[in-house]
Design brief:
Structural class: alpha+beta
Helix content: 40-55%
Number of strands: 7
Strand content: 5-15%
CATH class of one domain: Alpha Beta
Order of helices and strands: EHHHHHEEEEHHHEEHHHHHHHHH
Strand order of the largest sheet: 1-2-3-4-5
CATH topology of one domain: Nuclear Transport Factor 2, Chain: A
C-alpha cells in the first residue's frame, strides 16, 4: 500500500478561502486532491470563518448524499455528532491507498484528534458518471441508508441469540400465581440455563483453587502457624490440610440469584401451608425472610417456646389446656408418675379422653427415662468400655466381635 502525504503548499490555497471562493467539484481535481481538500477544510474548520471547513466539505458531498443528509444545517449537526466530530480541528492525518481504479478510490485515513487520540476512517471517492456540471468529477461515495434486509437479518440474529442464551424477558409475575410448583420451577430453570452453567463452572473452579491452596499449605506450612486476629491469638496446624479433609466452597452451585432463592422459599411456604402438621413453620418462615434479605429476623419472628422441665402440677395445667409437655432426664420420675396417677383418678380427667391420653403418654416417657438412667448406673463401666471400643473399631474392625457380648448383656437387662 502506498502512503501518501499531503502537499502543504498546494492545499494552503484551499484552507484560506472565503465563502465566495469555496472550491467546487470539477473534473480536473484528482481523487487525492478531493480527499485533501475535505481533510484540510475540517482540520481548519473555523478559518476564515466559523464552520467554513464543513461548508467546503458539503460542496463535495454527492447529490444523493445531500438528499439524505441535507440541508447544510442538518449536515453540520451530523458532522458535530459522535462519529465525525473527531475530524473537526484534528491535529494531523495520514493516508493509505487501499484500492484504486479508473472510477473508484478507497483510502484509509488515520487521524490524530485534538485530544491526542488516534482513529481511522475508510474514505471512498468515486467518479460521477451522470450528465451535468458534475460529470467526471470525483466526489465522496454516496451515503446509503442501512438495508432493511440487513436490519431484519440483525433482528433474527439477536432473537436467535436470546433464545439460545435463554435471556429473553420472562414475566413471572404476570403468570398464574396458583400454578403448580413444578411448573414455576421449570420456568425458572429454563430461563437461567446459561447463568446456571456459568455459576456451576465458577463453583468447580473455586473448588479446584481451594484444593491447590490446601495442597500448598499441606506441603509448606510449618506444623503450627500462629496468627493474630482481633480479640486474641489463633493458630493453624499443618494437619488441618491433610488428605482426610475436603476443601469445598460453601456456596450452592444450583442457586445463583436472590430471585431464585425467593422462589424456592415461596415454594416451601406453599407446600407447608398444604400440610402444616408435618412442617416446622418457624424454620420455613425464617428461610423466607432470609431469602428476602430481611435483617433482624428475630425481632420480627417469634421463636417457638422451648420445652422446659416442669413440676407435675404445671404439667396437669398444660394437659387441661391442650398444651404439649414432656419428661426430662434427671427428674424425680417416681414422684411424677405417682402425681399423674392420682390426677388420672379424678372424675374430671376420667371424662376427658384427650387429657387422659396426654398424661398417660407422659407417664410412659418417665418410665422410659427411668429405665435408661438405671441402665447407666448399673453398667457404667461397660458403657465406657463400649465407647472406647467404638473409637478403636475404625482402626481394628475385629473389635466389633468383642462388643457383641457387652451389648447383649445390656439389652438383656432392659
Amino acid at each position: 500500500m502506498k502512503i501518501l502525504f499531503k502537499l502543504s503548499l498546494f492545499f494552503f490555497l484551499f484552507t484560506n478561502v472565503s465563502n465566495a471562493d469555496l472550491v467546487k467539484p470539477n473534473s480536473t481535481l484528482k481523487p487525492f486532491d478531493v480527499l485533501m481538500i475535505q481533510l484540510n477544510s475540517l482540520k481548519n474548520n473555523n478559518t476564515p470563518y466559523e464552520d467554513a471547513g464543513i461548508e467546503q466539505t458539503w460542496e463535495f458531498a454527492h447529490p444523493i448524499n445531500k438528499a439524505s443528509t441535507g440541508p447544510l444545517e442538518r449536515f453540520k449537526q451530523m458532522i458535530y455528532g459522535e462519529s465525525y466530530k473527531i475530524l473537526i480541528s484534528h491535529e494531523n492525518n495520514k493516508i493509505i491507498i487501499l484500492k484504486e481504479s479508473a472510477k473508484k478510490f478507497v483510502y484509509k485515513v488515520y487521524v490524530l484528534s485534538k485530544d491526542k487520540k488516534r482513529y481511522y476512517y475508510i474514505w471512498q471517492i468515486e467518479k460521477v458518471e451522470r450528465e451535468g456540471n458534475l460529470k467526471d468529477a470525483f466526489m465522496m461515495l454516496p451515503f446509503k441508508e442501512p438495508s432493511q434486509t440487513l436490519l431484519q437479518l440483525m433482528g433474527v440474529v439477536v432473537s436467535a441469540g436470546q433464545r439460545f442464551a435463554s435471556i429473553a424477558d420472562l414475566q413471572v409475575g404476570d403468570g398464574n400465581q396458583q400454578a403448580a410448583v413444578g411448573t414455576t420451577v421449570a420456568m425458572l430453570e429454563r430461563g437461567s440455563r446459561v447463568m446456571s452453567a456459568i455459576h456451576k463452572r465458577l463453583y468447580a473452579a473455586m473448588k479446584k483453587e481451594f484444593g491447590l491452596l490446601a495442597r500448598i499449605f499441606k506441603l509448606y506450612l510449618p506444623p503450627i502457624y500462629p496468627y493474630d486476629v482481633v480479640g486474641g491469638q489463633r493458630q493453624i496446624k499443618q494437619l488441618d490440610f491433610d488428605d482426610r479433609v475436603d476443601i469445598l466452597p460453601v456456596a450452592d452451585p444450583n442457586i445463583f440469584s436472590q430471585t431464585q432463592r425467593i422462589s424456592l422459599a415461596q415454594t416451601e411456604l406453599q407446600l407447608a401451608a398444604s400440610n402444616p402438621q408435618i412442617h416446622n413453620q418457624y424454620e420455613i418462615y425464617r428461610n423466607m425472610y432470609e431469602a428476602l434479605g430481611v435483617k433482624d429476623i428475630d425481632l420480627i419472628l417469634k421463636k417457638p417456646p422451648q420445652p422446659m422441665p416442669k413440676d407435675p402440677a404445671l404439667e396437669h395445667i398444660d394437659a387441661l389446656a391442650g398444651l404439649p409437655f414432656q419428661a426430662f432426664p434427671g427428674q424425680d420420675h417416681r414422684a411424677h408418675i405417682t402425681a399423674h396417677l392420682n390426677f388420672l383418678a379424678t372424675n374430671m380427667v376420667r371424662t376427658a379422653p384427650m387429657v387422659t391420653a396426654a398424661v398417660e403418654k407422659n407417664c410412659l416417657e418417665h418410665i422410659s427415662l427411668m429405665a435408661q438412667e438405671q441402665i447407666e448406673l448399673e453398667f457404667k463401666d461397660e458403657l465406657q468400655q463400649l465407647a472406647q471400643m467404638q473409637q478403636m473399631m475404625q482402626q481394628n474392625p475385629q473389635i466389633q466381635q468383642q462388643m457383641v457380648p457387652l451389648q447383649q448383656k445390656i439389652e438383656a437387662r432392659k
